[in-house]
Amino acid sequence: MKLKFCGAAREVTGSKILLTTEMGKRILLDCGMYQGKGLETDAMNRDLGFDPCLIDHIILTHAHIDHSGLIPYVYKLGFTGSIVCTNATRDLCSIMLADTAYIQENDTKTFNKKRARKGLPIVTPLFTQEDARECMKLFIGIPKNMKFSIDNNIKVKFTNTGHMLGSGVANLYITENGRTTRIAYTGDIGRPTSRILAPPVPFPQADYLITESTYGDRLHEDFARADEKLLEVVNHTCVYKKGKLLIPSFSVGRTQEIVYSFNKFFNEGKLPRVEIFVDSPLSVNATGIFRMHPECFNNEVLQVMETDPDPFGFNSLTYITRQEDSKRLNEYDKPCIIISASGMMEAGRIKHHLANNISDPRTTILVVGYCSPVTLGARIARGDDEVSIFGMVHKVNAEVIEIDSFSGHGDYNEMMDFLSCQDKSQIRETFLVHGDYESQVNYAARLENAGFQNVKIPSLKQEFTI
Q1: 108 to each of 105, 118, 123, 321, how far by Cα in Å?
Q2: Reduced to 3 states, what is the DSSP secondary structure of residue 240?
Q3: Burial class for 395, CB neighbours closer than 10 Å (0-12, 13-18, 19+)
Q4: Taking the mean position of all CA atoms in its chain, how far away is CA 83?
Q5: Are strands 16-20 and 26-29 parallel, antiparallel or unpaired?
Q6: How far apart are CA 397 and CA 181, in angstroms?
Q7: Fewer CB within a 10 Å sphere, N or C end of the chain?
Q8: In what order do the strands lie in the sheet with 148-149?
Q9: Residue of 309, 317, 300, 301 lying closest to 259 (CA atoms)
Q10: Alpha-carbon distance 93 to 89, whole Å?
Q11: With contact defined as beta carbons under 8 Å apart, do 210 and 30 qualify?
Q12: Are 98 and 128 in contact (CB under 8 A)?
């Protein structure tokens, strides 16, 4: 068999791994989009490193766009195989891929206006909303922990990683010439304690391990302290400074966790009297899908739901979908909290809120997750004095605060604890993906010190025979 690393190789986005069996079956593990590099990203996404028409199956670990976002694109180019994932992942993809297509189409319109003024030829989006809708007919949703036969020789079972709703390790069993090879691809690894999701569970023994390394050189702050800090930031911004608290947040997962924390504060009588707006159509739809999948929740949330049937809603919380309602927040002159996508601040409505408020010292920007180094979010988080938003330079007078324990990625101790279920002597090779190279080098050393052998850091389009 061969493994070819077509994305997220020494990168934190664009997860795509091509597995070719000795019998010629081609299986793509994830089909993610590169994000956060501006115009360079478009060229990277179009250069797949494989022919979509030749792919037999896609096995999808979870619905985040950097793992699923190019599925409509490969469908558009001729992929007609099956897409196997958990039921919750399928449901999330039905809204997330359509939303990504909508952004593609609108960004392309804006970009083409600029090209037309320069006399340059127009460009086309990677895919359309129709492609996103049509590709959903290829999805096969299966329950976690069920071994599913893709064909007579290939089986897959998803076990919980706790990273996002529906996320799971893809445990593959491939039988050729009377011998079964076990391959585990973790996708992204969650944290042992989550506000909403059930914790990661041990996964079956593998012969070959492919695993993420996003926080391979970092430790998160104490989880319990994060909620205290969140409440402190709310009081500091909205009560003391009487300003706006902007929380750039990924629409799926992070937003629901923050809303759940606010719901808890509300139920406990700790939340100050301040309006909270979730300004993201995708967040609204995603929250509806969260409500459909309580089987993914942890015991605490299930207990809360016995007395509070909706842990994602309370009377000072408003979900906003219409653009005109979003624009009205620019004139809203009272202290408030605005949670809006995207988390890296590269796109979506959060950019408009930043443009309107980033120069006001009463504003606080709360960074609650990973921002790729080249993104607007990273520039704001590292303390740049000025940033460009929609082509205009803005002075950063707003206060910037980070709470990294809201991250859905485990730190290096949490990831290594998750991998400790494996008998290291049985793992022939370990491949690190989805991480910056420096982080991967540090994490590889930690894994080797812990007894993992043959730890590899693939480069883009590098191929290995296993």
Answers
A1: 5, 15, 7, 22
A2: helix
A3: exposed
A4: 18
A5: antiparallel
A6: 56
A7: C
A8: 148-149, 154-160, 168-176, 179-185, 208-212, 429-433, 455-456
A9: 317
A10: 6
A11: no
A12: no
Phi and psi of 267, rounded to 5°? -65, -30
Residues 92/251, Cβ–Cβ less than 8 Å? no
- Determine contact, residues 276/312, Cβ cutoff 8 Å: no
Q: Collect all residues with Cβ–Cβ distance below 8 Å to 37 and sequence separation of at least 6.
A: 44, 372, 374
Give Dmax (Cα) for the chain.
70
Going residue by residue through the chain, which has 466 residues, state the pLDDT in tens, using 9 for 90 and above.
999 999 999 999 999 999 999 999 999 999 999 987 666 788 999 999 999 999 999 999 999 999 999 999 999 999 999 999 999 999 999 999 999 999 888 878 877 888 888 888 888 899 999 999 999 999 999 999 999 999 999 999 999 999 999 999 999 999 999 999 999 999 999 999 888 999 999 999 999 999 999 999 999 877 778 889 999 999 999 999 999 999 999 888 889 999 999 999 999 999 999 999 999 889 889 999 999 999 999 999 999 898 888 888 888 899 999 999 999 998 899 999 999 988 888 878 999 999 999 999 999 999 997 787 778 999 999 999 999 998 899 999 999 999 877 888 999 999 999 999 999 999 999 999 999 999 999 999 999 999 999 999 999 999 999 9
pTM: 0.90
Structure tokens at 164: 């996002």
Q: Taking Cα atoms as reference points, which of 185, 101, 84 lies closest to residue 144?
A: 84
Residue ranges of domains in the chain, CATH in brackets: 2-218+408-465 (3.60.15.10), 223-406 (3.40.50.10890)
Question: Which residue matches tokens 């930690």?
Answer: 446
Angstrom CA distances, 40 to 35, 44, 164, stand at: 9, 6, 28
**For 401-411, b where at least 16 C-beta lie within 10 A, e where not — what string?**
bebbbbbbbbb
The tokens for 351 are: 């950019």
